[in-house]
Design brief:
The complex is a heterodimer. Chain A has a seven-stranded mixed beta sheet, with helices on both faces. In chain A, strands 8-9-12-11-10 form a five-stranded mixed beta sheet. Chain A is built from 17 helices and twelve strands. Helices cover 39% and strands 13% of the residues of chain A. In chain A, helix 1 runs antiparallel to helix 3 (64-77), helix 3 packs parallel to helix 12 (278-289) and helix 4 (88-99) crosses helix 11. Chain A is globular, with a radius of gyration of 22 Å. By secondary structure, chain A is α/β, with parallel strands linked by helices. Chain A folds into two domains: 9-26 and 33-287, Aspartate Aminotransferase, domain 2; 292-425, Aspartate Aminotransferase, domain 1. By secondary structure, chain B is of the alpha/beta class. Chain B has a single domain (4-144), classed as Rossmann fold (3-Layer(aba) Sandwich), CATH 3.40.50.720. Helices cover 34% and strands 16% of the residues of chain B. Chain B has helices at 4-19, 35-45, 88-97, 112-120, 131-139, and strands at residues 22-26, 49-53, 59-60, 63-64, 78-81, 102-105, 124-126. In chain B, strand 6, helix 4 and strand 7 form a beta-alpha-beta unit. The two termini of chain B are 25 Å apart. Classes of the chains: A alpha/beta, B alpha/beta. Chains A and B meet through helix 1, helix 3, strand 1, helix 10 and helix 11 of A and helix 1 and helix 2 of B.
């Protein structure tokens, strides 16, 4: 047996979760495009449904191609496992749904993706879960907002779109002192730039639609568990107590560090039904193989674009955490030493009207509602992604009327700067 | 797998699972919701012979239950423990006395003294690990449920029974 060896990030991005298929030897991960699986015999079927054996039953709950993706992202994030979902929003809904019950309370950053802000406001009210939004930069504010019912703290590593960098270590400490987990959306950083679990986060969620897929082809999401949080601390009956939906099984006691993930899959995914398709999982696996290469290029291009914009007279401010003027520079140095991502905002001197003219003058940046594509993207949040928010909520999320969000792709930086320069020129 | 200790542990786990045929489970419960029952069920399914050791049970998983390791009439390869840590030193001495090759302590079963006793008797020791999960990690289907096995390689997976 060769000596054990710790494999690096690039190697794991290509290999984790995808040893050659044992029967055929297929080197690429096969797409198991099947709804269901023939049982070996009746005993095997019973064992699978009783969770006594690792077995495939139905692709709403598990699928070998999806599982390969789940293992790869869990490996890259440093978690004990993960469960994939049909979208990033489905993933975070399921993550919260598994740990919360009516009467609980959660704290969330006020500078989250607009779809998340809207989701939390409406979903938590419908589920009778209290919700308080807090300024993500103010750790004392998080502390003051804690209540005896607070069961989870939630923020984004890099806030969308204002680019706040979350003080993960401080918030994890605060959450754990309160007996609650810290859940972090790591979509904008990806595990290449930041691994929140290494800083104490308990649950990591992703919209895999973005940099993980990387090519704008597929919608998906994933929940990664560190396996570190003690769900049996007396505050999470919904995870720790015998489950009426599984003959009285106590997930945390029986499955230990895998208990939350087992419950997330065997109950929440089973019941909510937002399963990731095997084909999308295959595309995400392909994406992850080049994640380190793409991210290195994304952040390099983002730096050059940010530098260009900061020096342009039509631009009033650039909110990129690596810039000397950024209030998040120190946090970015700590949590994002290899780059503060490739999605950031800037503001045009001319406000809303200038925003419209500018976007319509661009020829290489695609005007659309997505980020994290190999292609460079642009949007005007106030009129699109964050349109459901009122002015106060927009301000809390760091969005002004002339704010433009860029997702810097991996084209030639000189071409991106050429396009931005000519579009800014159209404002004169 | 980052340190020499980790490397040694991985090698020990794989070796124990490969030579194990007869496994005594000390503290095996007949309650189908207990972790020990899940483990016993899994090991039987994967071709191991399971000998329950629990003075409070007569039969578990269709297997006759014994009051102590010394009562088991067949040679034991691995002694898998689901008991409090303070019971482990005694179990380790019995394991050595019956000629077992390995002492396996499940999650949360902690006993530095018991581990020392077993090591002095030249037994292989695995601590704070689940034998079902480790089997599934290296030789089974743990990867089918999206768990991070930590196993990376370009060769076809080898399956034990």
């Amino acid at each position: 047996m060769p000596e054990q060896h710790e494999f690096g990030f690039h190697t794991r991005a290509i290999h984790a979760g995808a040893r050659p298929e044992p029967v055929t030897g297929a080197r690429a991960i096969p797409i198991f495009q099947t709804t269901s699986y023939v049982f070996e015999d009746a005993d095997a079927a019973a064992a699978y449904f009783n969770l006594q054996e690792y077995g495939n039953t139905y692709s709403r709950i598990m699928n070998p191609t999806v599982a390969a993706f789940e293992e790869r992202i869990a490996n890259l994030e440093g978690g004990v496992g993960s469960v994939a979902f049909a979208s990033g929003l489905a993933a975070q809904t399921a993550a919260l749904f598994t740990m919360l019950q009516p009467g609980d309370h959660m704290l969330a950053s006020s500078a989250l993706y607009g779809g998340t802000l809207t989701q939390l406001k409406h979903l938590m009210r419908k589920l009778s879960v209290g919700l308080t939004f807090v300024d993500p930069d103010d750790v004392d504010g998080w502390k003051r907002a804690l209540t005896p019912a607070t069961k989870v703290l939630f923020g984004e590593t890099i806030g969308n779109p204002a680019g706040n960098v979350l003080d993960i270590e401080a918030l994890a400490e605060l959450a754990h002192a309160h007996g609650a987990p810290l859940m972090v959306d790591n979509t904008f950083a990806t595990p290449y730039l930041c691994r929140p679990i290494e800083w104490g986060a308990d649950i990591v969620v992703h919209s895999a639609t973005k940099f993980i897929g990387g090519h704008g082809t597929s919608i998906g999401g994933v929940v990664v568990d560190s396996g570190e949080f003690d769900w049996s601390n007396g505050r999470y009956q919904v995870v720790a107590d015998p489950s009426p939906a599984y003959h009285g099984l106590s997930f945390h006691e029986t499955f230990g560090i895998y208990g939350y993930l087992m419950k997330l899959r065997a109950e929440t995914l089973r019941d909510l039904g937002a399963a990731l398709s095997p084909f999308n999982a295959f595309l995400f696996m392909q994406g992850l193989e080049t994640l380190p290469l793409r991210m290195a290029r994304h952040v390099e291009n983002a730096r050059r674009v940010a530098e260009f914009l900061a020096g342009h007279p039509a631009v009033s401010s650039v909110r990129f955490a690596e810039q000397a003027t950024s209030p998040h520079r120190e946090l970015a140095r700590k949590y994002l030493p290899n780059g503060a991502g490739a999605v950031f905002c800037f503001d045009l001197v001319g406000g809303r009207a200038a925003g419209k003219t500018f976007i319509e003058a661009l020829t290489l940046f695609s005007h659309l509602a997505n980020v994290g594509d190999a292609k460079s993207l642009v949007i005007h949040p106030a009129s699109t992604t964050h349109r459901q928010l009122d002015d106060a909520e927009l301000a809390a999320a760091g969005i002004g009327p002339g704010t433009i969000r860029l997702s810097v792709g991996i084209e030639d930086a000189v071409d991106l700067i050429w396009d931005l320069r000519q579009a800014l020129g159209a404002l004169r | 797998m980052t340190t020499q200790d980790d490397a040694a542990e991985v090698a020990t786990i794989q070796r124990v699972l490969s030579y194990a045929r007869n496994i005594a489970i000390v503290g095996l419960s007949s309650n189908p919701l207990r972790a020990s029952f899940f483990v016993g069920f899994y090991l039987l399914r994967h071709g191991y012979r399971v000998f329950p050791v629990n003075p409070r049970e007569s039969e578990v998983l269709g297997q006759r239950c014994y009051g102590s390791l010394a009562d088991v009439p067949e040679p034991i390869d691995v002694v898998d423990v689901f008991r409090q840590g303070d019971a482990v030193p005694g179990i380790a001495r019995e394991a050595s006395a019956v000629g077992a090759r390995a002492l396996w302590l499940q999650y949360g079963v902690v006993s530095p003294e018991g581990v020392a006793v077993a090591r002095d008797a030249a037994l292989d020791v695995v601590e704070d690990r689940c034998i079902k999960i480790e089997h599934a990690r290296y030789f089974g289907r743990m990867h089918w449920l999206g768990f991070n096995t930590g196993v990376v390689g370009a060769r076809r997976a080898k399956a034990l029974p």
